[in-house]
């Protein structure tokens, strides 16, 4: 294989894998005569996607924007908190155990509480997406800051640099690859959060669509919703990965720089 | 010696340093006394873990001594002093900056350069380029650190330590991680820079040949807790070359130091 063929083959691999999996699923449904209500054939799911794309798109966009608002809030808040925790041992020892305790709470448990406080609508979904996705950002940014080489810190201090200068010239750029790595995890988690909230109790979004479709035993539409969430997740992940490559080219040390 | 005629720039009087508290307290440095004249090149050698690096942090005021006192320019040191350049064994160049931007980092922090940098960017840019050229890195300013070899990274590291024209240069085993050929090449470069600018230098190393090649005075430290057990003036003519390192006089000094350190291990 030439280098070019190899590159093309690698680009084709995920699509091939997907095609094989879907074909196996289709075949299994036909051979085992699985009733559609249990598991619809992929071809049936695509049929529904094509037939009801306007409906799916509307609910998808609702989910997408609540997720994105939650995600952006998580980036802002996570970055600030991560910087505070990474920069100050006092903030670290004060907040870190609480954060871990909070992160251990199943987020599904807080949705009903949010409903009581905020009613149904976009707000509980935004908050759930935010709450579920900020933790990895905080941890990663704090790690990036806390692992500054002691020599570098000594060097900056001997030059008379203030803590603020050490933070802006060394700490923050150094934490950037950690931030972007966490965004890829956080982006998909944000979808988990918003769809969770929509499914537990809501009147909007793809989670609500799936819930009402399954209540009508319309499993093809439910699966169409699942596919839609997966596609949105991959798209947002890809956007984060692209941004990562743009912003922290240096962290990839040459071989991955394009 | 001109150096010993001028008043001392750095004085350490009976300086001790202990880390930790209570039962975990360990003495890293005990009763260190030394005087460094302005423009002098001092090397500190000793067995590993003898507190050589601690000594550097004490002189620059990064850590306060547990007892005794450190004076620089006659004033007692209580916080990081001004006019210091530092280079470590680990080059610690920032990977997101080009080599030139790394070298210019101190200019963004140290006054008065910090104030002038924006207005006189071009002049400072030239200055960094000239310094890089003087260590043979004239064409590498735009490269990133990870595109340079280990020796080149260390040369940039030394440039970063010198760009703001510090009065005191602290070198903590800066050539320790390099291969023998590159190391000897850098001795020559270091000596040339020093002969030209005459900054006061403290070099911490465990390479005795390096110490004798570069220094005016070599201090030998004991095992932990480190104390000064020998002071040896090196009065070989400068500039010293690799040829010098094979001369009987040079070899004798290295032997003498080696024997003293051997006693510490015995």
Automatic annotation (TrEMBL), chain A:
Segments crossing the lipid bilayer: 12-34, 64-86, 98-120, 126-148, 178-200, 220-243
Xref: CDD domains: TM_PBP2
One GO CC term on file: plasma membrane
Topology relative to the membrane: Multi-pass membrane protein
Coiled-coil region list: none
Primary location class: membrane
Database matches in Gene3D superfamilies: MetI-like
Classification via InterPro entries: MetI-like, MetI-like_sf
GO annotation (BP), single: transmembrane transport
Keyword Cell wall biogenesis/degradation: no
The keyword Transport is annotated on this UniProt entry: yes
Domain of life per record: Bacteria
Domain ABC transmembrane type-1 positions: 60-244
Localization of this protein: Cell membrane
Keywords attached to this entry: Cell membrane, Membrane, Transmembrane, Transmembrane helix, Transport
Family that this chain belongs to: Belongs to the binding-protein-dependent transport system permease family.
Name of the featured protein: ABC transporter permease
Automatic annotation (TrEMBL), chain B:
Entries under InterPro entries matching the protein: AAA+_ATPase, ABC_transporter-like_ATP-bd, ABC_transporter_ATP-bind, P-loop_NTPase
Record-linked Pfam families: ABC_tran
Domain ABC transporter residues, every copy: 10-248
GO terms assigned for molecular function: ATP binding; ATP hydrolysis activity
Keywords recorded for this protein, A-Z: ATP-binding, Nucleotide-binding, Transport
Top-level division of the source organism's lineage: Bacteria
Family annotation (PANTHER family): ALIPHATIC SULFONATES IMPORT ATP-BINDING PROTEIN SSUB, TAURINE IMPORT ATP-BINDING PROTEIN-RELATED
Family the entry assigns: Belongs to the ABC transporter superfamily.
Name recorded for this polypeptide: Nitrate ABC transporter ATP-binding protein
Origin species: Ancylobacter defluvii
